[in-house]
Design a protein that fits this description.
With 87 residues, chain A is mainly alpha-helical. Chain A is built from 4 helices and no strands. The two termini of chain A are 13 Å apart. Chain B contains 14 helices and 27 strands. In chain B, the strands form 6 sheets. In chain B, strands 2-1-11-10-12-13-14-15-16 form a 9-stranded mixed β-sheet, sandwiched between helices. In chain B, helix 1 packs parallel to helix 7 and helix 4 packs across helix 5. Chain B is globular and about 70 Å long. Chain B starts with 8 loop residues before the first helix and ends with a helix. The chains are: A mainly alpha (87), B alpha/beta (525).
Chain lengths: 87, 525
């Protein structure tokens, strides 16, 4: 299982996004920049959520799937940290 | 009042009946625009384009996210006598250039967010004279023969339409779709094609002025456009929601705006059923759901019915070449006919024909062939491709199907080697052509495999040259520069050999059977 300190989490999430986004995630993507700008769409989002669940052994609730939680790298890392803590 | 016979008449007639009625709602901001307001915007657009030299029959590309801007630009192009060429917002620059070049577009209207593909697309297009964008200075380099003007200039125009003679046989839209050769083909639709199809859809869905649809599907896609046109015709509302990647946010908008209709493709419903709290919501205002854009798995259809008790679920079938719609399944028949595409819509005839053109018996598989006023005139400037699909029998859909003893139609496969991945129809050959450019590739075969989200996913089987050290990842990286994302294989399977017949032809049917067996073993639907 990937590391769970915040830097590791961000790197893992960016890595997964690099795989699911149609054109990858540009290097150095700022943590607070909306991921829709990088081409995140509903199908990529579904792949992202499924991949993160598999890698970290967590389960996101339907209520988690909003822009507050999945809009940016930083937001996803914060949500993931909460779900890992509650695992 | 004269009946609407041109597509933009839909808005004019509804605005004349009740100018204050809400037409377009932008779900993320809650901004609402009435029929009267939007009609003014349409007239300003038409005036602007006419003033810039756009004349009856000129092609105008339109590249924008779903928005009020899109609505005003689309109907504005038509009111100026132009032919709207809706462009796929997921297409890259070279693909857009192919579309604009094929139709000889004189102008391109692009909404915010498309600076890069627009800049890449507009070089080397001799017919293109005008680009209308939010920030002309950002288009750099701008070819010398081109003028780039700001979208903001449209607002300065008078809100009265140019006085033009237009008839319903004029072309309204050219909609690009992939052919089996991979070359773009522009389905050429007249005002009459679209008006006829819109009226038929309104009649079987029973739409009226109190209907409000949640618009998730893109306007550039004929299914998405049909939502706009049907609601414009009846004076209903279109609630634009561009945040479907957060499905609960989209459902919040559906509830808040009291939407009566929800329309999607199979992936829309897979996402809602797997990643939203759809089943826990009551949605008291929702009257119906429509599904088209490729066959949805029977399992997913049954889950949708269970999640939405008491709501009407319309399964539909169509084609870009048919303006949008060809058949519909009455919701009352759905539980006993899951998997069927239903019966022809009003004013359309569907038949199942054998290779020799004679009609197939009940239960016998043949090609589904359609006739109706909604069928396109042909592919733009392409008599060869047109002749392959239009003949004395009508429009050959390329889908293999059968009809049962009660007259319900069923699609069982495809005649051509095409993959329907999400809303995109993709030619297997085009992908194979891109893959063989990779120097290490010896053999390749591309097929569609069943996928719950996309309907079909693209899978490439490759055999690398002897002693090659190339990997599937190397090939995937190579393809990123050659194919837009929606045409890239979701999976690349490297093999030592591919099944071939005696003449050396790769037997895709065997690969499809293997794939079906493998996926069934993995527990997929």
């Amino acid at each position: 299982m990937p590391g769970t300190d915040s830097g590791e989490l961000l790197r893992t999430i960016a890595g997964v996004l690099g795989e699911v986004l149609p054109d990858g995630l540009p290097p150095g993507w700022p943590g607070d920049r909306p991921l829709v700008d990088a081409g995140l769409d509903s199908v990529a989002m579904l792949e992202l959520v499924t991949a993160l669940e598999a890698r970290f052994g967590v389960r996101f609730a339907p209520e988690d799937m909003d822009a507050m939680n999945f809009g940016t790298l930083d937001a996803i890392a914060a949500l993931l940290a909460r779900r890992i803590a509650g695992r | 009042m004269i009946e609407a016979y041109l597509v933009h008449h839909f808005v004019e007639r509804s605005a004349a009946r009740d100018p204050g009625r809400v037409f377009v709602v932008e779900g993320d901001t809650g901004a609402r625009a009435s029929y009267g307001d939007v009609l003014e915007g349409i007239h300003r657009f038409a005036r602007f384009l006419h003033g810039e030299g756009i004349r009856r029959g000129d092609r105008v590309g339109l590249l924008a996210k779903n928005s009020r801007l899109y609505v005003e630009a689309y109907y504005g192009i038509l009111a100026a006598g132009g032919i709207a060429v809706p462009l796929n917002t997921a297409a890259d620059g070279p693909t857009l250039r192919d579309f604009l070049h094929d139709c000889g577009a004189r102008a391109l209207v692009a909404g915010p967010g498309f600076r890069r593909p627009v800049t890449e697309a507009i070089g080397a297009l001799p017919d293109l004279e005008l680009v209308l964008v939010d920030d002309p200075a950002a288009i750099d380099p701008l070819p010398a023969h081109l003028r780039a003007l700001p979208l903001g200039a449209v607002a300065e125009m008078p809100a009265s339409p140019p006085d033009l003679l237009l008839i319903d046989q004029d072309v309204a839209a050219i909609v690009y779709t992939s052919g089996s050769t991979g070359r773009p083909r522009g389905a050429t639709l007249t005002h009459l094609n679209i008006v006829t199809n819109t009226r038929s859809i309104v009649s079987y869905l029973g739409l009226g002025p109190d209907d409000r649809v949640l618009q998730i599907l893109p306007f550039y896609y004929v299914y998405g456009k049909s939502l706009l046109n049907t609601h414009a015709l009846v004076g209903g509302s279109v609630v634009i929601e561009n945040r479907f990647l957060f499905p609960n946010t989209a459902l919040d908008t559906l509830e808040r705006e009291r939407c009566t209709g929800l329309s999607g493709v199979p992936s829309t419903f897979a996402i809602l059923l797997n990643r939203s709290n759809l089943a826990e919501r009551e949605l008291p205002h929702l009257r119906y759901v429509t599904q088209a854009g490729g066959g949805m798995s029977p399992g997913l259809t049954r889950r949708l019915l269970a999640a939405l008790p008491g709501k009407q679920v319309f399964v539909m079938y169509g084609a870009t070449e048919a303006s949008a719609r060809l058949s519909w399944l009455d919701p009352a028949d759905l539980p006993r006919k899951v998997g069927s595409i239903g019966k022809p819509i009003p004013n359309v005839e569907l038949r199942v024909l054998r290779e020799d053109g004679t009609e197939a018996e009940v239960g016998e598989v043949g090609e589904i062939v359609a006739r109706g006023t909604n069928i396109m005139r042909g592919y733009w400037n392409d008599p060869v491709e047109t002749a392959k699909v239009l003949d004395e029998h009508g429009y050959h859909t390329g889908d293999l199907g059968k009809v049962d003893e009660e007259g319900f139609f069923w699609v069982v496969g495809r005649k051509k080697d095409m993959i329907k991945a999400g809303a995109h129809r993709v030619s297997a050959k085009e992908i194979e052509d891109a893959i063989v450019e990779f120097p290490e590739v010896h053999l390749v075969a591309v097929i569609g495999v069943p996928d719950e989200i996309l309907g079909e996913a693209i899978r490439a089987y490759v055999v690398f040259r002897e002693a090659s050290t190339a990997t599937a990842d190397d090939l995937a990286n190579f393809l990123k520069k050659r194919l837009p994302a929606y045409k890239r294989p979701a999976e690349i399977v490297v093999r030592d050999d591919l099944p071939r017949n005696e003449s050396g032809k790769i037997m895709k049917q065997q690969l499809r059977a293997e794939a079906a067996g493998r996926d069934a073993g993995a527990g997929k639907e």
